[in-house]
User: Fold these one by one.
Assistant:
Number 1:
Amino acid sequence: MRLRRMGAKHQPSYRIVVAESSSPRDGRFVEIVGIYNPRTSPMTLRVDAERAAYWLKVGAQPTDKVRSLLVRAGITEGKLSREGLEEGYVTETPRRGVEPNVIPAGTRADAAEQATA
């Protein structure tokens, strides 16, 4: 599973597709399972959860970016990057033996939490 670039010059949007590893980035694909547009505010992310879960179950390997998008969509479990944490996204409970990520006070996530309280 990977992103397929769409859109005009300097205005990218992406489709989340299932494709064989040997096919070109914007070339042949098996199925479209979602869309991602980082240029909208907030970003647009739509994923067909049923089809994405099916492809993961049969062995499709998502790229790092697609994996993080699937975590944000709630389809798979995993940790988000520090950038995702600062934007207020929630991560899973860390595995045994792994220290949880600590966000220093005064970050955007902390300010957003205080604003909602």
Note: Helices lie at 49-57, 64-73, 82-86, 108-116.
Number 2:
Amino acid sequence: VEVQGSDVDSLEVGGKLPLGIIVEVAGRKMQPDFEPVLERHIHMFMNEAQGLWHMGQRDINWIRISRGAAKAGFKLEHIGKLLHAKFHDDYSSILDKVQVKIFTDQKQVEELRKQAQVVFAERDARLAGMQDEDIETFYSCTLCQSFAPNHICVVSPERPGLCGAYSWLDCRAAFEITPSGPNQPISKGNCVEPTIGQWDKINAFVLKTSGGNVERMSQYSMITDPMTSCGCFECIAAVLPSTGGIMIVNREFPEMTPCGMKFSTLAGTVGGGQQTPGFIGHSKHYINSRKFIA
């Protein structure tokens, strides 16, 4: 584990640092398709630590360290040790070596971010040409049920996970790595409503996995039985009744929106695993989909 730059003890209460995390791995069974799967598990690993809170994904993460953890001597090195241990414990079947580098210098982080964005774009491009009608199996994602126990993401080629970090291909790879994990294949079954995207077996799966709290879920509609959200969405779309249109706000935008709420307030309304007709959390990539809010 290597830390370059300022550490937590240099901050006042409420202060902040830029943060870049690089996890380098090696293993005979490691594949490039597994990279986004391992990357997304950083979210889960961090939230298993007492006094550490992680939200978001890719290059729009929020990480908070509690006062209690800071008082107890928490350092960024501990994030590295946590990730090093968890990757070895959970993925020993594919990983032989792991090393973690943490950066807090603004210029270094910005340069690393540019490099990462190139990789993210390449990942998103892999799904070009795939359509939901061409396959019979979608995938679930329950990684965020620690935040929202009722929430279940259903990931298809034309609707990636709302976090933007998991595509249909990523979920398929995750299932290959861990067949009993949070990404399970779901047979679509019979189509109930093609326009808004409802299938009987998808609804049955969602009902069971949400603990009986969500009876029906539309893959594409933001009005009729919309998909639930946890809190990791890249964007929020909201209906604006006075205009007959919708607005979309991304996580990075801090100002007031046309609906009268900032992103943080909207996130509290949309997240938590509840269906909120007229509002959906979604990824940036989904905006370009032909299935966007059908």
Note: The mean pLDDT is 93.
Number 3:
Amino acid sequence: MPKVKITSNLHRFFPILADDNLNLAGQSVSEVIQNIEKLAPGFTNYIMDERGAVRRHVVICIDEEFIVDRKNLSDKITEANTLYVFQALTGG
């Protein structure tokens, strides 16, 4: 199962995701996100917009690479990968 790392900013809303040894099943980003949602209800609403795409200020990576499909989350993931979900920094 892929390892999952969630930014500490989201731990206060979803403390169960603070586990450094979090591994969830899934062969695509979508499947892993669905399993995160089962563990932490409301997580998907926090990172996805009303159209079902990843929110503008949320970044999802597989290892060091940004995901390509921010709408359907179809990027493939393996047991050897780590999925990162974090908030993008913005400002001016």
Note: The domain at 3-87 is CATH 3.10.20.30 (Ubiquitin-like (UB roll)).
Number 4:
Amino acid sequence: MAVKNSNIILEVNSVSMKFGELYANKDVSFEVERGAIVALIGPNGAGKTTIFNCIAGYFKPFSGEILFEGEKITRLPSWKIARKGLARTFQVVRPLKEMTVLDNIMIGAYQKESNTSKAKEVAMTCMKTCFLEEWADKTAGDMTEGNKKRLEVARALATSPKLLLLDEAVAGLTSTEVQEMVAVIRNLKGQGISILMVEHIMEAVMPIADKVVVLSHGEKI
């Protein structure tokens, strides 16, 4: 049985993932402390998104183990991991374009709240955290890329996660939009949410990361 360290929310222990004979991750280990922002950086093809998918349950690692709040989640399906309080965003955002921003976020809230009024309250709070209040009744398809990225975060936030995985949340954004996202991430940390972020843009990483983990050719360096 794993020993629970109350200060560690996520442990990745010697995780390897391969496709055929090609290793995408090899013997990767790191921890995310509770309430911390940890940045996972490295060049394209370094294995960052693969390790994300292993953590979130989309891939099953070839070897190693992953613990969330001291509990082994290595081979759990993604929906069970999400229910435990781990949420992730994706590089390519796909909001429901014909629905309002509020309704998009409420879909996430319904994972924890069956009551419509409570789900709406959660969604409104998430919009405020992500600076999207003015978009509440507008359709998601009309948003700029920067706003869509923040909507993606708001939808994940609506599930009430303890740990949020952000996969290149500022990719393709302008400098102003990057700073807006940095402000959102600071808001999340202020709410006590632990964050693991994959990122290339150092402008986003350096002001906010408590720790940086570097991957190269699938290995931690």
Note: Residues 96 and 104 are 6 Å apart (CA to CA).
